[in-house]
Structure prediction request, 627 residues.
Amino acid sequence: MRGERLELTTGAGPRPPRRPYARVRSLPAVLALVLGALAGLSGRAEAAGSLPCDIYGGAGTPCVAAHSTVRALYGAYNGPLYRVARASDGAATDIGLLSPGGYADAGRQDTFCGGTTCRITRIYDQTARHNDLTPGPAGTAGMGADRGADAGEIAVTAGGHKVYGVWISPGVGYRYTGVASGVAVNGQPEGAYMVASGTHVGSACCFDYGNAESTPADTGNGHMDAVSIATTCYFAPCTGSGPWVEADLENGMFQGDNGSNTANRGNSSAYVTAMLKNNGQTRYALKGGDSQAGALTTWWDGALPTRGGYRPMHQEGGIILGTGGDNSNWNMGTFFEGVMVAGYPTDAAENAVQADIVSVGYSGRTDLPNGPQGTVTGPGGKCVDVAADDTGVNGAAVQLWDCQTYAEDQFWTHNPDGSLGTLGRCLDISGNPTANGTKVQLWDCDGAGGQKWVRQTDGSLLNPQSGRCLDSPSGATANGTRLQIWDCNGASAQKFSVNGGAPVAGPGGKCVDVAADDTGVNGTTVQLWDCQTWAVDQHWFHQADNSLKMLGRCLDIEGNATANGAKVELWDCNGVGGQKWVQRTDGSLLNPQSGRCLDSPGGATANGTRLQIWDCNGSAAQRFRLG
Prediction:
């Protein structure tokens, strides 16, 4: 099983808007917004009592820990959700909310982390107890200290807003070390839930959230009380292949009774609500549900295991996320939100919490890294991969390996400067030489010529400094084949498809961009805008037929026109001449049908400048570099 890695720190600043919408609302729409805002003001007190910790508190089981990178879990909460730190300079900043009781300000993260990568270094506790989670220390499981998750790995939608989850890979994990304030110890009752992915899961130990040892060591049966979702059939027989909502009570992933529970049929939806409650003495319950729709299913509500050590429980009051109690951090998963409460929650409270979770409207895939990054597939259909399972240190070998949707180090971002980045570093030619056979590696992004990679129409990746192409020696396709540079020859050994696309850098250092923030409908304006590494609509695919494709459509000349000044737009790819673009040696993009070049009117470089075609003239207004 493979894993992944990354790191972060602190800083702040106002968040500039990405780009304004040109759309003007109708008067009825404006009135509706105003009336809605007024209604929201009058109903704010009611709304403030509807979020998970408000529900639990109202039922007499208050939250003692509340963690989420997605949203507030109290209606009145208006503090930070998590902290990110940049790989480029170590600076860090807190990511808060768009409004009190609302959703995460993902735009702040995008702006702060633009052009580099960030790691999540702290997940704040939204209660007043300050039970924050940070990457955990090494434990007795034999693994080293945990690293923080890549902050930009998994973007989804919640409440109609873009938000980020916590992508847990082997080696990633968080902990409150010590006895967290208010968290159950020595047989006290408690409850917990988390919203996690049912499609990004594994069978190794352990993707847990909840109560664990106060130090990262297995101190015996009953010393943990954490909810888990995994494909781990610890006590056979199990029904199906999971994933199952389970209770990690230490030295066992329990589905019910003494471990096995064939009535537990698992929860495999993209988003899963996983719930556990335990009275600490005789009884526990497990529930699961689809976080996007429907009610909870009770998988177990009965006696605690009669195996020694579980009656009563011996909880120690630590908190873990993404690991086991001894820091077993070999599993994977995606976390969006979770809480721990004091006392044994009522079914009514849990049902109300599930209804609130469903109302969030979670959407988006949770089984693979998303956004502008994508795999780079090479010979034999293998993926360009970093050796040593996502640790991503300087000098790590870059190789071919079977493609794995969950592998962070197989998802690359093609940056505006032509570099290919993953794990906070860049695809680099070892020592920056230019000779045939020089191996490639991962290295700190430094702008060197050995880190530039330009896609060619024949499917190769050219390094302009050396004049050579990325190459698999003798066309080898075996796992672990170390990649190199070699004379460009058009062979299958040099066919590498950048499946995340690449920016097209234009005048003034701006990027070719689609208006209306990634909607990409027919007729959408194509313009210049500040380069944003997170923007899907700035990553273009240079197809073999010389079209430039993005968001499922192509860069097109309006009406397939050929005259000077004809504007360009996004349109369904249809193979017409107005959708063909050829890179010329002077840096311009020629449309062969018209004999004219992509052009910024008057050499303008302001955000929102609408692009056109014009007589090719070699000026700076026509310099558009394909990645």
Summary: Residues 303 and 552 are 54 Å apart (CA to CA).
